[in-house]
Write a structure and sequence with these properties.
It contains 8 helices and 6 strands. By secondary structure, it is of the alpha/beta class. It has a domain of 107 residues.
């Protein structure tokens, strides 16, 4: 018990202040998950502002947005985005879909099939187009990898600095 108390009293080496510049290149891998994107952006900014030489950023979903913005290099815009983004800027609801259940059976199926999805991702495209300068990403020294899922074909799709786009 005493040994445990002594070990808890000592700070972990990972929590100690950096004693010099980091010279080993690093990669950041950022997951998806909506609101986790804000936390990941803050953590990535802390690493970069602390001198971590990030050479590769990879992500999916919200992590892909963060990764592309890190490759863009305008870190102030990344922080501003997560301080101001709203649900309406990410997706909009398709009202007709919610009332489809009130229709007779076959009309419900037709309405749902025509809608394609419950949510409209068009606002997200607008948000991405305004947040990321893809020419800056293409010219960036930071390597970008984005992973998406093509549900129709049931496979992963990979993008990099040269192939990433708002779509």
């Amino acid at each position: 018990m005493l040994l445990t108390a002594l070990s808890l009293a000592a700070p972990a080496w990972a929590c100690e202040p950096l004693r010099g510049p980091l010279d080993a290149p690093a990669a950041l891998v950022l997951s998806g998950g909506g609101a986790k994107g804000a936390w990941e952006a803050g953590a990535a900014l802390a690493f970069i502002e602390g001198g971590l030489p990030v050479r590769l950023v990879a992500g999916s979903s919200a992590g892909a947005l963060n990764a592309a913005m890190l490759a863009d290099g305008r870190l102030d815009r990344l922080q501003a985005l997560w301080r101001s983004v709203t649900r309406e800027q990410v997706y909009s609801l398709r009202p007709g879909v919610f009332f489809a259940g009130l229709l007779p059976g076959w009309l419900t199926l037709l309405t749902l099939d025509a809608a394609g999805s419950l949510l409209d991702p068009a606002p997200l495209r607008t948000l991405i187009a305004g947040a990321i300068d893809f020419e800056r990403v293409r010219a960036s020294p930071v390597r970008l990898l984005v992973v998406t899922t093509d549900l129709a074909r049931r496979r992963a799709r990979l993008f990099d600095n040269a192939t990433v786009s708002v779509e």
